[in-house]
Amino acid sequence: LVEVRAMASSAGSTRPQQQTQRRPEPSAGGVIDLTLDDDEEAPAVRTEKPKRRPPASSDAISDAKRARTTTAVTTQEPAWARKRGVPRIMLELRALRDEWDAPPRVWDVELVEDRATLWRFKVDGFDDSTEGGAQLNRDLHELGRRRGQSYILMEASFPDDYPNKPFFVRCVSPRFVWYTGHITAGGAICIEALTTSGTPGSWSPSHCVEAVLRTVFANMVHAERGYVRTANGGGPTGPLRVDLQHTYTHDVLHAYELHEARAAFGRMLDHHRRHGW
To answer: Whole-model pTM above 0.70?
Structure first.
């Protein structure tokens, strides 16, 4: 598509100067801007009669409508995106309840004592196609057979100025083998995205509960095998394992306390300040 602009001849000239044509940038929507200044003449433009196209079939029309609808849905920002405080928290709660597409399965998402800033929820049904997910599912199945609980109970708490500051998420029960699945000895989650360390992967107000939980669950089943050294000595790392052998606890369903999780999270932050992420 070409825009043709003609400059008017200078005063007293009898022959117009030939203006070099230039290729314009097409405007939005495929519309060509042929607007001229008041002192310009519109050049003669030869046009060709457009060829008639056969009418689109009903199937093609339907496909085009579906494509436009799909584009509109995928580009629409989440309902919570411009919210703050409790309105933001409640919209994220609704999204977690209605839009989560497992695995793992996240269910029974409820407020604790009707407090918008404190949630509890259950997690099970990890991805069986991964070694870590299949093993964790077996652990939870065995836990259910022995003690009647075949899921992970988790808790999320939110600050009043959320999302300026991150929420805090922890496991409540069962208890896990230390250093596995990025779960601390106190049940807190070892994840850079929930810190305010200012590092590239730390918290941003654009983050949300759903996105962070997906990372948490991926870390549970994909944690690398190795060895970690801590102030308490350290131990082998790897995908998350339930402490069914009572190596670190006398009761695998003895709930992690909040103060345990907070203390363990603080130790984790100190460790990463010294050694990086």
So the answer is: yes
